[in-house]
Amino acid sequence: MTRVLMGDFEALHRLGLEQILRVDGIELVDTAGVDVLDRLCQALPDVIVLDLDKRSTGDLVHVIVHRFPRVKVVACSSQHPMMRIFPPLHYGEFYESDLDPALLTSAVQA
Length: 110
Description:
By secondary structure, the protein is of the alpha/beta class. The protein contains four helices and six strands; from the N terminus they run βαβαβαβββα.
């Protein structure tokens, strides 16, 4: 089972991502109004999904990939249908892909 922590998203964007990720083999964990880094320490997810459109996401990703290098980060944009995937143990290196339901599920579970 892949544990996925959902970061802070606008309601509609969150709902769409949750519907895509509600498949067998993925357990969704919400931030529940708690700071993402605090929740990350509590939930111990395999993957964290963040909102790429937020200004603070770049700094947050930097902290996560260096303090929690085994956690994969998937940052999704609703403004530009794309995602940026930061694989575990790559310390900030990433690749980009279209934001497509099948590709998102694959990126999270891979």
